[in-house]
Design brief:
Layout (H helix, E strand, L loop, with lengths): L26 H17 L3 E3 L9 E4 L8 H5 L4 E10 L4 E6 L7 E8 L1 E7 L5 E7 H14 L14 E3 L11
Antiparallel strand pairs: 1-2, 2-3, 3-6, 4-5, 5-8, 6-7
Length: 176
C-alpha cells in the first residue's frame, strides 16, 4: 500500500469524466482501493475519488466521521468502497452545508445539496448495492461522485462570499 499524491484544483484530470471500471476483480483495482484507503487515512479526510489521485476511474472510498455516523453507516465499518456509483436525489429538498476537499486545500465553501439521495454501486467484491442516505452521508456521496464527473464543490457555490479559508469558518456563526 502507498499514500498517493492528491491532485489540486486546476489539474486537468480533475475536470474530466471518469471511466467505468470493467473488471472490479483486477489486481490493479484492488491495489488502487488499498492505496486510496491508506491515502484517506493519512490525509484525514472523509472521502476520496480516484480522479483526485490521478486515476480516471469511477471509484470512491469514503468514511463517515463518528459524530455524523448513523446506524446505517455504522454497519458498513470505517471505509465504504463504491465502484461505478450512480447517485439520484430522493425528493427536491436542498440544504446548505460547508464543504472542504483534499483537492482544494485550506478552503471551505457553502454548497447546497439534496438532503436525501439514493446511490447504486458495486462494492470491492462486485456485489451490487442500493442505499438511501440523508444529511452528511448524502452530502459526501454527492461531493465524491461529482469528482467522477469532473466537478469540484466550488462549481456549486452560489456566492463567492461563501468561499472562505477554513481558518475563518468560526466567523460564520450559527451557519457553520
Amino acid at each position: 500500500m502507498a499514500v498517493l499524491k492528491i491532485l489540486r484544483m486546476g489539474n486537468p484530470i480533475l475536470a474530466r469524466r471518469a471511466e467505468d471500471i470493467m473488471d472490479i476483480s483486477a489486481p490493479e483495482v484492488s491495489r488502487l482501493i488499498a492505496d486510496m484507503k491508506e491515502t484517506l487515512q493519512s490525509e484525514g479526510g472523509s472521502g476520496l475519488a480516484a480522479p483526485q489521485v490521478g486515476v480516471g476511474l469511477r471509484l470512491v472510498v469514503f468514511r463517515i466521521p463518528g459524530r455524523h455516523r448513523s446506524i446505517t453507516s455504522a454497519v458498513h465499518g470505517d471505509f465504504r468502497v463504491l465502484v461505478n456509483p450512480v447517485v439520484e436525489p430522493l425528493g427536491k429538498e436542498l440544504e446548505a452545508g460547508w464543504e472542504a476537499c483534499l483537492s482544494v486545500p485550506g478552503l471551505v465553501g457553502e454548497v447546497w445539496r439534496y438532503r436525501a439521495v439514493r446511490c447504486r454501486y458495486y462494492d470491492e467484491t462486485g456485489a451490487l448495492h442500493t442505499t438511501d442516505a440523508q444529511g452528511f452521508e448524502a452530502r459526501i456521496l454527492q461531493h465524491e461522485c461529482d469528482h467522477l464527473d469532473g466537478v469540484l464543490y466550488p462549481h456549486h457555490i452560489r456566492s463567492m462570499h461563501k468561499l472562505i479559508y477554513s481558518s475563518e469558518l468560526h466567523h460564520q456563526g450559527a451557519i457553520a
